[in-house]
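Bug report (template v2)

What were you trying to do?
Predict the complex of my protein with zinc ion.

What happened?
Run completed; filing so the output is reviewed.

Input:
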Amino acid sequence: MATVLAIETSCDETAAAVVSETGDGERPWRVRSNTVASQAEIHREWGGVVPELASRQHVRDICGVVERALDDGRAAWSDLDAIAVTQGPGLVGSLLVGVAFAKGLAASLDVPLVPVHHLAGHIESLVVDNGRLPLPAVVLVVSGGHTNLYEVTGEAYPRRDCRLIGRTRDDAAGEAFDKVAAVRGLPYPGGPVIDRVARSGDDAAVDFPVARMTHADRSASPAAAPAGIAAERRARRMEFSFSGLKTAVKRHVEARRAARGDGVLPDGEVADICASFQRAVVRALLDRVFAAARACGARSIGIAGGVSANSRLRADAAARADAAGLPLALPTLALATDNAAMIGAAGLRLLRAGVTAPLDLNARASLDL
Ligand code: KG4
Ligand code: ZN
């Protein structure tokens, strides 16, 4: 049974993990360690991730994080059959630190290097925590950088058997959480804070708009345009848009501040705005996920990525999956946000399929799945 050391540095977490195959097709991966050094404190001061600071901090942290992952996983260098690393997409300066480190390890240990797509890692996090997904599955990857909907039809994903069926036309859902929090003066990253503040709010207090797509995406590449009218309608139903909602929240906050002489909103009203915003995002996400599941005849639904940590999204998704009679896969909170365990599991799937990279592998800021 193969064991990999995985490295993930695509954004602002330096992460390493040791993951082994189990030999059990239903629950194929065992996470032996999962170490994350978060840089959130460093970037909070600036209201978002500063790429240059992120790459420098990865350089400082990576040796310690890798050593810790090996220690926690009780693994020796000689136990490793391969090194898996996130090749992209992400911040290129951040990715480069992980890729260079992984290449150095693979060369010195004389083991294969496995290049992993960050979103393939998020999809695999569902399998780590829930076991094999009943296929076909409709999987939403919802993070700070992406809001992508996939149809997964077979076990050879992500290289085959995996089709992008919807994505955001503008902001990612996590980005909307982060930007709305910034408007409210709440600290970065905004998702967890809004989630917490919204708990005491009234989600029906403000009627924020849920975007519906009525026009074809004029900026989409012609190659991606679906052929028939029915196909185009279907495609539009699966697209997301969050920039209008973000602007609506901004306008609402500005108007309410102006209406109150002191410009300060009471905590109760902030909670109401957060709850109403969160309800609108969750509804926009889940309407499309369940429409896609119906259109694809899905046998299960998965939701992964940082925003899948959202308590409202988890609760509403569970209720709707229950009503639809479909099993729902969510990652545990530790595997929802960026981590290397998911990269290790995806790396093992690729390794088993014979996918390895030469030592001139390069990091890629944008990379198709
Ligand atoms: O997957 P991830 O860790 O990094 C990327 O690949 O982007 O996702 C980070 C995103 C951030 O936008 C963060 O605000 C959001 O996930 N997030 C949440 C929650 N926890 C993290 N959004 C809503 N509710 C949460 N509880
Ligand atoms: Zn991510």
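What did the reviewer find?
Residues 267-296 form the longest helix (30 residues). The chain has a mean pLDDT of 93.
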